[in-house]
C-alpha cells in the first residue's frame, strides 16, 4: 500500500475554501447583511379582534412607521375573494406613531362578519390599498363573494354584506 505524504497547511490563509473570513478568498462575506441595514418592507400583518369589532382598530406600529412621511388620510380595503369593491376607510394617526382604521371600518366589519376573536390579515398592495382576509374564532378563513349587479347606486352608508358561498 502506497502512502501519500501530506503537506501541512495553515488555516485561514491562502486561497482555500476554509472556514476563515468569507470563504471566497476575496475578503467579502457570504452572509446576508444584518437586519438593521435591510430596507424596511412591511407587506403583510394581522390584528386579532379582542375588543368591540366595530370601533376603530389600531394597526401595528411597524406598519405606521413604514408609512412615515406618506401617511394617508384614508385607505381602501378590498376583501379577498369578494369582488373588486374597495371600501373607503378613514385613517387616524395619534401623534405617537399609532395608526387607526376609523370611519368606514364599521361598515367593512359588519359586511365581512368581523367579530370578537377574529383574526384579520392585511396585505399592503401599495397606493393605499389593503387586501383583507378574515378568519373566525376557530382560525378558519371566511370566504365571500359579492353580487356586483346590485352595486350600481350603492353608497358607503348602505351596508350590504358579502354573501357567504353555500
Automatic annotation (TrEMBL):
Q: Where is this region: Disordered?
A: 1-36
Stretches assigned to the TF-B3 domain:
42-138
UniProt-annotated location(s): Nucleus
Mainly resides where? nucleus
- CDD domains referenced in this protein's UniProt entry, alphabetically: B3_DNA
Q: Which SUPFAM superfamilies match?
A: DNA-binding pseudobarrel domain (SSF101936)
Q: Which Pfam families would you find in this protein's record?
A: B3
- Any idea which UniProt keywords this protein has? DNA-binding, Nucleus, Transcription, Transcription regulation
Single GO cellular component annotation? nucleus
**Composition skew (Basic residues), residue ranges:** 8-22
InterPro entries xrefs: B3_DNA-bd, DNA-bd_pseudobarrel_sf, Plant_B3_domain
Q: Name one GO molecular function term.
A: DNA binding
Q: Kindly provide the name given to this protein in its UniProt entry.
A: TF-B3 domain-containing protein
Amino acid at each position: 500500500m502506497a502512502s501519500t505524504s501530506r503537506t501541512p497547511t495553515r488555516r485561514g490563509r491562502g486561497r482555500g475554501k476554509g472556514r476563515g473570513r468569507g470563504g471566497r478568498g476575496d475578503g467579502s462575506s457570504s452572509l446576508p447583511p444584518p437586519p438593521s441595514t435591510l430596507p424596511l418592507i412591511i407587506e403583510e400583518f394581522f390584528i386579532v379582534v379582542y375588543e368591540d369589532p366595530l370601533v376603530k382598530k389600531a394597526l401595528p406600529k411597524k406598519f405606521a412607521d413604514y408609512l412615515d412621511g406618506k401617511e394617508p388620510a384614508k385607505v381602501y380595503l378590498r376583501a379577498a375573494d369578494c369582488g373588486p369593491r374597495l371600501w373607503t376607510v378613514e385613517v387616524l394617526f395619534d401623534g405617537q406613531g399609532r395608526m387607526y382604521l376609523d370611519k368606514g371600518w364599521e361598515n367593512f366589519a359588519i359586511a365581512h362578519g368581523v367579530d370578537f376573536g377574529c383574526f384579520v390579515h392585511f396585505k399592503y398592495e401599495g397606493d393605499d390599498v389593503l387586501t383583507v382576509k378574515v378568519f373566525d374564532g376557530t382560525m378558519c378563513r371566511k370566504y365571500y363573494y359579492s353580487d356586483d349587479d346590485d352595486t350600481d347606486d350603492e353608497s358607503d352608508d348602505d351596508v350590504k354584506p358579502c354573501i357567504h358561498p353555500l
